[in-house]
Each structure stands twice: as C-alpha cells, then as structure tokens.
Here is the input.
Amino acid sequence: MEPDFWHERWETSRIGFHLDVVNPWLVHHWPALCVNSDNRVFVPMCGKSLDMLWLLEQGYRVTGVEISRIAVEAFFSENRLEPLIETTGRFTRWRYEELEVLCGDFFDLDKADLGHLDAVYDRAALIAMPPVMRPRYAAHLDTLTNRQTRALLIALNYNQLEMAGPPFSVSADEVNRLFSKNYVIECLASTDVLEKNAKFRDSGLTLLREEIYCLTRREDKSRS
Here is the structure.
C-alpha cells in the first residue's frame, strides 16, 4: 500500500492490526531461530508493537522501521519510554537503550541505516503488501541482510476472494516464490485461527490460518 494509506489509518485510529499483547507465536517460536541474545533484530513496519519490548527484554538490540510518526510517538509515550530523537538523512531515529525506531519509509532504507542484522521479525509487513508490492519488499529486504541473517515470518492464509486486505493472504507457495532463492524455508506451524478472530468471521471468511516460517539464509560466499 502507498504511504498515504498507512498515514490515514493511524490518523483515524483504524489500527485493528495492532495487538495489545505480545504475539504468542513470537514467544513460542522465536527460539527456533537460535539467535544469540545480544544480536540485532530488525522489525519492518513495526507500528507500536509490544513485540519490540519483548525482544528487548530478552537481551536483543532491536531496530524497527515505521512510516507513521503517530505510531512511533504512541509506542514511546504509551510505554513511558523517554527516547533520544535525532534526524539522520531520510529518517528520524527514536532511541531508548538498545531499542531504536526509524521513522520513515522502509523502501528508503539501506545497509548503512541499519548496520549488521542478525535476525528479522516480520509479523505485519509482508501481509500488509498487496501482491504487486511483495516481490519488491522481498528484494529490498534482501539488500539489508547478510548471509548470517535468519527471519521469523508470520503470515495469514485465507481465500482472498472472501475479504479484501490488508491484511492480505499470503500462501505457502508465495512465501516459497519470494524467499526460496536465498533462504531455506521451514514452516513451524499452520494453525486455524478463525474461531478466535470474530472480525474476520464477520468479514465473511470461512477459513483463516496463521502460518509461521523460519527462514535461514542459504550459504552465499559473495555476501558479508
């Protein structure tokens, strides 16, 4: 979706995608990545997710990127964190201890903005993209990572004809098309979650699966 779409969502508080708790799939499946606790985790399109605080509490250095200043301000104010704020290039950095959020467009990021990334946590980025944007997202993410980077990806799988996104449906086949060139993909879980999500039932869905993937980068001697 275009930036104006997400700015409008945050301005009008249409943020049904936000969870008021830490995502239980993150807690349960994160150990599968085997990422050392002092490593850097990147959270694309992070919103005001509490998942970033959970990762920080586990000892990780956390970097998120979020296009909406409203979301970034809410994250720090609602969690009573006092950030150091500075503008660097196209981004405003909000930093608190070992956590920082870059306010700006994901597609403007380069490696210099992020440094060395050990892991990626994507709960809300890929499924926020319509089909035409997903290859661009996967390709740009690839430019930001390195041969050691691992990722935990959470996707939704449903009949797209029954409901318009976002969040959009992303099938296992599409995950493979987008990432299998550079990653070994393991599906850690595929769970029917329709009964727990009344808003999706009310939208007309007859099936909703939440699917969790571990992505491990294939060996590539040309990357550093």
User: Anything to note?
Assistant: The chain is about 25% helix and 25% strand. Confidence is low (pLDDT under 50) at residues 220-224.
